[in-house]
Write a structure and sequence with these properties.
- The structure is a homodimer.
- Chain A contains 14 helices and 18 strands.
- By secondary structure, chain A is of the alpha/beta class.
- In chain A, strand 14 and strand 15 form a beta hairpin.
- The N terminus of chain A is likely disordered.
- Chains A and B meet through helix 4, strand 6, strand 7, helix 5 and helix 6 of A and helix 4, strand 6, strand 7, helix 5 and helix 6 of B.
């Protein structure tokens, strides 16, 4: 999308809460001073909207504006305590299917950290709409809570390809994928498998997989080894906040939420209400977010000019209170003026990347994205609440179900087998997973068989959760328990 | 448990794989030189056991030994590729219900890092048997994987109290609790709530909650602010590997897995086969793990003597290849001899803590640990696989179920409402969560009502997962979706 002066680009502008209006205002002034013609549509979201009684924190007018403009620049939004159950920031990401969260992390001139001089310059590419972040939770028993971690192969392909494409667009050379596939072979494993499957399509990029805990270790020990890191949503949440601390904190952490239709650009930091309106805050994160936005919109020259001006300003020692101390920092307005004054100057010691248009991945849109040649239902996990011991429960279930098509294979407590007895010291509570397997193999359970089993169990026990055990193309679609054969 | 020379303490010793025997051998020599009488029972686990065909990697003799001795010191275990589905390390932790993983992270003399001189000295206390680490996973559709994150209130109370007790035993002053309770209010929220409930019982300890991503940020930015950090299993996995990098890596990272019956002491590092048998590795992590073990066994003086000797040795510049480079490091044997030679000397510049016996938390053993006064089943989430659009599926389900006791409230895709239509751009696949709510309120669904609904749905659609929606003491036992009223 390349705009011309006669056809100003329309962008939704959400000033946000606390220090948001000051950050967003600084970015807007700099963009305009750089000669980019943008028609801003100013919209509301956040604290005031929650207080008016809208539980999403995002009014319909704002949704309508972004649906039309397809691009938003926003300040931080606050979810006031007692209003709303979901963060308005997350709501916006999910409503517009901005599946990629992009967080560049780069050493900045004048911002001294324990890592200064090592040239940290990496980009965290985090899946943004799936995973535990969906917040799908159930109290299974009064004392056992469950959250669902859902990871799709399609979502994984989108974020994996996005990571490679992003690396290409910035002329980067390496892409790492961080997952916990060694423990969660099916869910986290999906991203690992898909990443390794698509990697050969990007032969100029070096790629590898790293276990997420080791990735955290390596980010602290030798962060300069990383270039682009692709990861799942919850892991990415932790890794990206870790990374932004390496370069001096959230005041320098821009971000983009990019989907195939809409992109939303925002700082990572919060609304910091105690600094609001005092002309003391560091607007760099939103300014650098707007640089990402300009590149997304095709204004490559102007984006580079602003990035140069920011680096020249920092090199000259003009720094805000978060870096120098709030009694000694340059006021927000003066800092912004300095950047505007430096437009046209070029940093000699810091590299500003030559960025090419980002190719968004095109993925098969069909809902049945993975199509196995064969499949069957081979059993059922029934989650039972019971005050009994595992042995008592096991005996009872075996008696109740002995003449059905299924037999009780084992009972586990939080993933460890407790029936048949193992001799281990596993503590059990009132929450048991009871695994029933079809007696005749190969076979395929019908829903009638399932209902029959549930009716039997219901005569004596209370269940709250059921999972069908499936096979796809002869491979188990479920994991075995600790201690299960 | 205080042993006397006439009654040697029996400890299970698992040398483990790769560099394991060298590390464990060094620790054993030092313990013996410090005058502690231990009768070691050497047992197998790990790579060779997997290769013999035992899928757990832990033979019955080893389990029997630990069940009897109740204490083990072990080297790293390897899970050879293609053998076993579970790590033998995790198996041991789960079999013996060692619910607390303790990982001290402390600046070491002579080990230069970007944080040197800042006095990092913290302990990560990680829940060790629950959470996503159970690896309970299902392919829900051919392209959508699910992992279950299970967190119990009892498990949370155990780890929260353990954290406070551990802080007390070491004379520490602060305990932080790191969770993602803002996104996962029921599961991660359980640990936060329990932590805040038990904190007043430890009035001499300062305590606070920190969101896990901010905790990662703070650990990089200002690690010296932390003393003890209590966290859930998966988060703790990442945070503890992050932390060990702050002080120079895994060669200095001891750990203890402590339960109310058994404790297993081990280094955090892997088996590093390429360095095995070369007399070049750093055994400090296992040595410091054995210091934790000696304190657990009541040998406080000898533990302090070894810790002093390790610090004196490092202060004198005797350092292994992982720190100095493998061409210049002190051989493992010489390093061990140096520590033995320094037994009796005391470091003047580094503080060795005066540790008191750890009081393990005593928790109500009843299985129905939380007992609500009232409860009811108010609905059902049915997870459906369908190639239809959300609107088509919604219309069909409404028609199929209109004369049951339940009505379709909404359909969501990965946690975002997609029916009734919201106008948002949410992409759907073949995996839908269909939320049915009881029509007559207040009410309580019977299993008969549930079966009736499932029979109706099964006539036209395929489901793979069901969750009952419960209320406990008038509070919803489930979360609302993004976009759900």
């Amino acid at each position: 999308m390349i705009a011309t002066p006669s056809d100003p680009t329309v962008v939704t502008l959400i000033p946000g809460d606390g220090i948001g209006p000051e950050c967003v205002g600084a970015a807007r002034r700099i963009i305009e001073a750089a000669g980019v013609q943008i028609a801003w549509e100013e919209c509301e979201a956040g604290a005031e909207v929650f207080r008016k009684g809208l539980p999403s924190g995002v009014p319909p007018e704002t949704i309508e504006s972004i649906s039309r403009t397809r691009v938003a620049l926003k300040g931080p939004l606050e979810t006031p305590v007692g209003f709303g159950e979901k963060s308005a920031n997350v709501t916006l990401r999910k409503l517009f299917e901005t599946y990629a969260n992009v967080r560049p992390v780069r050493e900045m001139p004048g911002v001294t950290t324990p890592y200064s001089g090592r040239g940290i310059d990496l980009v965290m590419v985090r899946e943004n709409v799936e995973d535990l972040y969906a917040g799908i939770e159930y109290l299974q028993t009064p004392g056992v809570a469950q959250a669902l971690k859902l990871i799709s192969e399609k979502g994984s392909e989108k974020i994996a390809r996005f990571g490679f494409e992003y690396a290409r667009s910035e002329g980067r050379t390496k892409v790492a994928c961080a997952t916990k596939a060694n423990i969660m072979k099916l869910s986290e494993g999906t991203l690992k498998r898909v990443f390794e499957r698509v990697a050969p399509e990007y032969p100029e990029l070096e790629s590898w997989h790293v276990i997420v805990d080791n990735c955290a270790h390596q980010l602290v020990k030798r962060p300069e080894q990383f270039d682009v890191i692709v990861t799942t949503n919850m892991n990415g949440d932790i890794l990206s906040d870790l990374s932004s601390a390496l370069i001096g904190g959230l005041g320098f952490a821009p971000s983009a939420n990019v989907g195939n239709e809409v992109a939303i650009f925002e700082a990572v930091h919060g609304s910091a209400p105690k600094y609001a309106g005092k002309d003391v805050i560091n607007p760099t994160a939103v300014i650098l977010s707007s640089v990402l936005m300009l590149r997304y919109l095709g204004f490559f020259e102007q984006a580079a000019a602003i990035e140069h001006a920011v680096f020249v300003t920092l090199e000259s020692g003009v720094l805000t209170g978060d870096v120098l101390g709030y009694d000694r920092g340059t006021p927000t307005t003066d800092y912004t003026n300095a950047i505007i004054g430096n437009l046209g100057k070029r940093t000699e010691t810091w590299t500003i990347r030559d960025v090419r248009p980002l190719q968004l991945p095109k993925i098969d849109p069909r809902p049945d994205y993975v199509r196995p040649a064969s499949r069957s239902v081979v059993g059922l996990d029934v989650f039972v609440e019971s005050p009994l011991s595992a042995s008592e429960l096991g005996s009872s279930l075996m008696e109740l179900t002995h003449d059905t098509k299924l037999s009780l294979k084992m009972i586990s407590s939080r993933g460890t087998k407790v029936f048949p007895p193992t001799g281990a010291m596993t503590e059990t509570g009132d929450h048991f997973r009871c695994r029933f397997i079809i007696k005749e193999e190969p076979g395929d359970l019908s829903d009638g068989d399932v209902h029959e089993l549930l009716v039997r169990i219901s005569t004596a026990h209370s269940w709250m959760h059921i999972e069908k055990l499936q096979e796809f193309d002869g491979e188990l679609g479920f994991t075995r328990d600790q201690g299960e054969d």
